[in-house]
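Bumping with the actual sequence this time:
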Amino acid sequence: MTTYYYNEDASGTIDGLSESTGYDGSTSATLPDGSSAASKLKDVVAALQSGDILYIKKASSDITWHGSVTTATKTTDGPTRATDVGPVDIIGYGTSVDDGVRPNIDMQSFTWQFNRAAGMIKSINFKGSYTNAGVLAIADGALLTECRIESSAGPCLEIHDEGKVDRCELINTESVSSPAGSYTTYAVSMYGSDHVHITNSYIESRNGSGGIYVRRRAGGASIKGCIINVNLDADGAGNLNGHGIEFESLAYSRGMHCNNIIHNASTGILVNRSGTDDRGPVAIHDNIISSCSKAIDGNSFYNQPANTSESRIVHPVRSYNNFFYSNTSNSFINNETDPTYLTSDPFVNVATKDFTIKN
């Protein structure tokens, strides 16, 4: 287990072992795996060994990422912090470690897939575009936390098998006239072959793209405690068709989606069905859905059986304890239970993105 530093303003002999001698993005140095190369951030990250920590210092200008990379799980990756056995943690800082200041990384048109089991990326700002996947992808039990990602094309983030995202800001600025049905036109894509999670995060789609797209996979997805704010029309193009959360096929998924705020969407929660999918043990509860054309809508299959001649969905979706405000229509789900229909704006000021609940 070794602690390394990345500092593009370093001035000493470059070995990565202190802030003043941190990897600087250009000087040839010995990397954490013992290889020798120019100390670009992408290559330093790829060379980290199990148990290592990399601190990235905020530079005087953006740090440039050079090329797409997958940092794959190693057999020694794990949750125990010990020599050569443990997670890889990558943490940004400003003047002192763990001060919460975020360095800025320009991903350009590349993607970084972080698959280090039990690893963590914390306190970094990313910007970039990668149309066919996310600017970042998180998988294999890794955690992305306290980060900001802004994408001008394609998703900010793709969450793969057992990936976890918490307390992040995910901003999509792409201008999209019709985002429905394509994960590439959403701020977040969830690819749940195993369970994937996003919690306590702010998702903003400014110009017609959607918030979160849950793809049709046999695992599950959990969306909890998030604010999803879409269709801001920041570019003035009039694209206002973004959905808050869209399920490619809710009847092929499982999970819990609760305590979210979904605002200004074409459809707050859109539940599609693919083929003959006939399950969907999903709970939608304790959300606030406001100012949407439709709050909850989708395939009528989720209301079967409407009569005795229809086949019943194997595990019916349950939607309960949700709050609705100023939507053109509310939930289409027949068994919507204990809804609350608000008559006044529950938020302090959505125009300034203050979604604090009024007392």
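The tokens above came from a reply further down the thread. Residues 41-47 form the longest helix (7 residues).
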